[in-house]
Each structure stands twice: as structure tokens, then as C-alpha cells.
Request: fold
Amino acid sequence: GDSVTQMEGPVTLSEEAFLTINCTYTATGYPSLFWYVQYPGEGLQLLLKATKADDKGSNKGFEATYRKETTSFHLEKGSVQVSDSAVYFCALGGTYKYIFGTGTRLKVLA
Amino acid sequence: EAQVTQNPRYLITVTGKKLTVTCSQNMNHEYMSWYRQDPGLGLRQIYYSMNVEVTDKGDVPEGYKVSRKEKRNFPLILESPSPNQTSLYFCASRLAGESYNEQFFGPGTRLTVL
Reply:
């Protein structure tokens, strides 16, 4: 069945460092891909999405490209801030069902 | 304000005592879904509903029931809770149609079953 494999955390970075969180997937068909962010004590919020191969999603300085050839959707940000500290989830969406990764906790130090 | 609300936010109960977690959205969304979040396992989908009176199982439906009698509400029912249902639960909703429509999540319900 469909699955999402996400980089283990926690990831600890200094402010202004470059961030990469790896995400790979297996899926039948052509799912949409998402990154969600969860701040402490809150529900998940959509960070960015891509709906087809080679699409790039971007938001708040974060980017991810839907790579069909490598079945990947890695999250990147050029310069992280303390306020980016959160848990990040990669997810794929079929017609009705969603598969989430295990989440990667990011901690950014000032 | 557009939102998904869940009640209660925190609940401690005992094995076998039936409980209901309510979920309501004010965005007129057709699609609603329940997830549970567990350490090391991420979010797993319990049930989803495409519209009123239309529900289907997600990946981990055992021990749960849902109903969708009104468009805005999607309660999660645990008829006989067990300790392995201790978890953080999230309700979500989105517009019908393509899966790339954004899901909006509630704030979560932390359930402890003793």
C-alpha cells in the first residue's frame, strides 16, 4: 500500500542555518503531496503542497519539489528562524485517504 | 472565524466507559476525517466522510464508530474504550473534490484510557 517515509528527528539547528527534511513516498497513481507543520499544543497547518510531478510548493521561505523519478518531496529552507521550531509532517493524499509520515521535530537555537 | 472545533480538549476515562468526541466545522466542508497521533507513528486516519450519511474506514478503524447526520458535525464514538486508544485525536475538514484541497485541523483531543 501507499506509504510515506520521513527523516527521523529531532533536528537541531542554529538560527540562519539551512534546513532539509527528507521525505520519500510509495504510491499507486498520482497522489498530491503535502507538508504540514504542528506548533506546540496546536493542530496541524498546511505549509505547502504540490499536485503533480515537478511542481514546486513554497510558503514562508519553505520549498519542496515533487520528484516522481526519486519519489521524494524534501522540505528545504535557506535560513531558519527560532519561530520555525515545530514538528513537520510529510503527507500524501489519494482521492479520499491520507497517509502521513511520522513527523520530524525541528528545534532552532538562537 | 473559519475553524474546526473539538470537544473535549482533554479527557481521562476508564476502560469500557463509552465516550464521544465531538467535531464541528463552520466552513461548509463536505469532507471530514478523524486521525490519531501517536509517538513514532505520526498521524493515522481512523475514518472519513465524503458527505452527509457517507462514511468509510481509514487505516485504523477498529474500536471506533462515526456518524455524519449533519454536514457540520462528525462525532467520534468509542463504545468500549481500551488503554491502547490512549492518544491525541484530530478532526479535519476540507472541500469536496480533489485531495489537494487543504485540510483544516482542529486543536486536538488528548484522551487517556485507564
Observations:
- The interface with chain A takes residues 4, 31, 33, 35, 40-45, 48, 50, 56, 58-59, 90, 92, 98-100, 102-103, 105-108 of chain B (CB under 8 Å).
- The longest strand of chain B covers residues 42-51.
- The mean pLDDT of chain B is 94.
